[in-house]
């Protein structure tokens, strides 16, 4: 193998081993997300990451929302930290967002060399999304809810970007912005 190939493989491996705590900022207040019990049961991270995977132009940011139950949603954001177009896979998105959600119960953010990720559980409803029914209790019979179509729980937030009041920047769908 060529020395360059070995170095690239080594750096890729070291990035893979990087703990989530390195560069992670967990929020210390707000709504506790109960990641392992709520959104995990619904494969929410896998669903939103299939939606958010794809190409992002330089500094583009995409935000989406997953409705957990009535008046409880989870906001997700990804930003390309490069001046050029880059692609993110659903698998990488899911791996990073899941690690961040498991580590930060109130939500948080993490950046690496290429991407910045935000997760934030909140009270409220995803704008334009149907209201999800409450999650079933253990032992309850699961009946399909025919009033909800298969995918509309994923919607881009339509709110305009606000200040950094809680450390989370809200944006409308896709946004391209130069700088950090």
UniProtKB/TrEMBL annotation:
<feature type="region of interest" description="Disordered">
    <location>
        <begin position="161"/>
        <end position="180"/>
    </location>
</feature>
<dbReference type="InterPro" id="IPR054443">
    <property type="entry name" value="Y3-like_dom"/>
</dbReference>
<keyword id="KW-0732">Signal</keyword>
<protein>
    <recommendedName>
        <fullName>Glycan binding protein Y3-like domain-containing protein</fullName>
    </recommendedName>
</protein>
<feature type="signal peptide">
    <location>
        <begin position="1"/>
        <end position="22"/>
    </location>
</feature>
<feature type="domain" description="Glycan binding protein Y3-like">
    <location>
        <begin position="48"/>
        <end position="126"/>
    </location>
</feature>
<dbReference type="Pfam" id="PF22803">
    <property type="entry name" value="GBD_Y3"/>
</dbReference>
């Amino acid at each position: 193998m060529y020395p360059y190939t070995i170095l690239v493989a080594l750096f890729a491996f070291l990035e893979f081993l990087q703990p989530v705590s390195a560069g992670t900022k967990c929020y210390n207040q707000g709504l506790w997300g109960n990641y392992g019990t709520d959104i995990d049961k619904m494969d929410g991270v896998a669903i939103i990451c299939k939606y958010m995977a794809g190409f992002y132009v330089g500094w583009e940011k995409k935000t989406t929302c997953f409705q957990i139950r009535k008046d409880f949603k989870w906001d997700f954001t990804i930003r390309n930290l490069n001046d050029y177009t880059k692609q993110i896979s659903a698998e990488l998105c899911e791996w990073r967002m899941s690690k961040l959600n498991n580590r930060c119960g109130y939500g948080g953010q993490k950046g690496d060399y290429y991407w910045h990720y935000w997760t934030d559980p909140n009270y409220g409803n995803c704008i334009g999304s149907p209201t999800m029914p409450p999650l079933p209790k253990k032992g309850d019979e699961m009946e399909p809810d025919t009033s909800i179509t298969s995918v509309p729980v994923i919607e881009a937030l339509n709110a305009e970007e606000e200040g950094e009041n809680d450390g989370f920047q809200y944006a409308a769908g896709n946004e391209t912005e130069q700088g950090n």
